[in-house]
Design goal:
Number of domains: 2
CATH topology of the largest domain: Tumour Suppressor Smad4
Radius of gyration: 19 Å
Cofactor: Mg(2+)
Largest sheet: 10 strands, antiparallel
GO molecular function, one term: ATP-dependent diacylglycerol kinase activity
Family: Belongs to the diacylglycerol/lipid kinase family.
Number of strands: 16
Keywords: Kinase, Transferase
Shape: globular
Pfam family, one: DAGK_cat
Structural class: alpha+beta
CATH class of the largest domain: Mainly Beta
CATH architecture of the largest domain: Sandwich
Helix content: 25-40%
Number of helices: 8
Length: about 325
């Protein structure tokens, strides 16, 4: 095998792979799962787990890492990918840990898109098979979040995290999906408008700390990126920190106020240029950590997963944390 940087590798045995499938993901189907499994089984020694509870993907990936698997493949949305990554890295990054592969099956598939993996499952399967055959892989940095609503090891995130408005949207969408609503762009927009209106009635106030600068007080929203894009709205990439990548630190986009004129200009810039700039915007594209505090508990999300409410969070950049098959 050969890494992406050209260093030769070789396997002395057949690659052991675990395919973790979320059957509830937006675009995952039994037929697609069977085609994927059949294609992979010709190249690897494959085992399959279908998730049946929240955290199941993380538990399965953690067990696979402990059992010496070479590859753990997430077939589902970004939530499934996040769980697999957290399972593989349970206890911390290890140079001998398994690679992570991704075959998208969700609605946004931000992590796959940021890696250049096709969002179409069939095309993504072809890329994965090529990676297995040729040994192409990439070592990437991740974000890690610590808060009192999490255990001592914190939580890894692959593409974005936030406290306040974006987490309000994630919590609202999760609530709607639990009632049977489909995770569509229209649903996200509806929930986002409602969350924004609520924030105008009762503004949130955050203090933000980053390395080598005085604290920023009375900030209205805090978005943290581990890569670009920050997310997708349908097929459109939403870029908040276009210079942020898996090879650097975290990106920060924090608006000092969410009043309509400021928020409107910010959204217009994001949609038009993907390179927002404003005197009311605190934007940094490569920082080692972001610390956020507030007096009233605020919602917290990572990779589109609502984690709960807290008054203090630390987001850390962790370089070279994960090996991905690309």
């Amino acid at each position: 095998m050969r890494e992406a940087d050209g260093h030769a590798l070789s396997y002395s045995q057949v690659v052991r792979a675990l395919l973790v499938v979320n059957p509830q993901a937006t675009t995952t189907t039994p037929a697609g799962r069977d085609v994927l499994a059949h294609a992979l089984a010709s190249d690897v020694k494959l085992e399959i787990v279908q998730t049946s509870y929240r955290g199941h993907a993380a538990d399965a990936a953690s067990q696979a890492a402990a059992d010496g698997f070479d590859l753990v493949i997430a077939h589902g949305g970004d939530g499934t990918v996040n769980e697999v990554v957290n399972g593989v890295l349970r206890g911390g990054p290890r140079p001998d840990g398994p690679m992570v592969g991704v075959v998208p099956g969700g609605s946004a598939n931000v992590f796959a898109g940021a890696l250049g993996i096709p969002r179409d499952p069939v095309e993504a399967t072809h890329v994965l098979l090529q990676s297995i055959e040729h040994g192409t892989r990439r070592r990437i940095g991740l974000g890690q979040v610590f808060a009192d609503v999490l255990d001592g090891d914190g939580r890894w995130f692959t593409f974005n995290a936030g406290m306040g408005l974006d987490a309000d949207v994630v919590a609202g969408v999760e609530h709607k999906r639990a009632k049977g609503h489909h995770a569509s762009p229209a649903l996200y927009l509806s929930v986002a408008l409602k969350a924004y209106a609520q924030n105008l009635r009762k503004p949130q106030h955050f203090t933000v700390e980053i390395p080598d600068e005085p604290p920023f007080d009375d900030v209205g929203m805090v978005f943290v990126s581990n890569t670009d894009p920050w997310t997708y709205f349908g097929d459109k990439a939403i870029r908040l920190n276009p210079s942020t990548s898996f090879d650097g630190g975290l990106g920060l986009s924090a608006l000092k106020t969410l009043r309509v004129p400021t928020a409107g200009r910010f959204v217009a810039q994001v949609l038009a240029t993907g390179n927002p700039k404003s005197g009311k915007l605190v934007r940094r594209d490569d920082v080692g950590y972001v610390r956020v505090k507030c007096e009233e508990p605020a919602n917290l999300q990572v990779d589109g997963d609502f984690l709960g409410t807290t008054t203090a969070v630390e987001f850390r950049a962790v370089p070279d944390a994960l090996t991905v098959a690309v």
